[in-house]
Amino acid sequence: MKVNEVPQEITYYEGYKRACYALNEDGKYVIVTSSGWSAEEIVNGLAVAELEAKLEGVRQEVIRGEKSPLLYHMERRQMTPEILAKTADIACFRVKRHFRPAVFAKLKSSVLDRYAKALAVTGQELISVPKK
Questions:
Q1: Residue 83 and residue 88: Cα distance in Å, rounded?
Q2: Is 121 helix (H, G, I), strand (E, B) or coil?
Q3: How far lies 42's CA from each of 1, 48, 68, 99, in Å?
Q4: Which of 56, 84, 106, 122 keeps 20 to 30 A from 76, CA to CA?
Q5: How many CB atoms lie within 10 A of CB 22?
Q6: Which helix (H) or strand (E) holds 115?
Q7: Contacts with 88 (C-beta within 8 Å, 6 or more apart), sequence order
Q8: Where are the domains of the chain?
Q9: Average pLDDT of the chain?
Q10: Model-level pTM?
Q11: Backbone phi, then psi, for 40, in 5-degree steps?
């Protein structure tokens, strides 16, 4: 795409702009700002809706007592068990085990603190999920 072809439709970014790469007159890539375009708005909207639906499904599992709040907060931060394990410095198999409510309920405060720090939540937020 050439510099003068970068879409400037007002869309998803709500007045903000983002950087795009485009070819200038010399055929070199340069950074050009864009306020987005309708196709991008649709795709981003679908992705956000899918993430919200998945998060709501996990929240319902926590409410039913099938999963621990740890899984909800991990999903909310769009982390995988592997990323959370590395961030909290806890073995991945232990992170997965802590998704079980009975196991999560018995965790020491030091482990909960590591999870809270890794997930950027308070200790109280970590042990619960939002009402809605």
A1: 9
A2: coil
A3: 20, 10, 33, 33
A4: 106
A5: 16
A6: helix 109-119
A7: 95, 114, 115, 117, 118
A8: 3-36, 50-126
A9: 91
A10: 0.77
A11: -65, -40
pLDDT tens-place string over residues 34-93: 877 777 778 888 999 999 999 999 999 999 999 999 999 999 999 999 999 999 999 999
d(C-alpha 106, C-alpha 125), whole Å: 17
Is residue 112 helix, strand or coil?
helix
DSSP strand pairing (29-34 vs 18-23)? antiparallel
Question: From 1.10.260, 1.20.1070, 2.40.128, 3.90.350, which CATH number describes the 50-126 domain?
Answer: 1.10.260
DSSP 43-102: HHHHHHHHHHHHHHHHHHHHHTTSS-HHHHHHHHTT--HHHHHHHHT--HHHHHHTTSHH
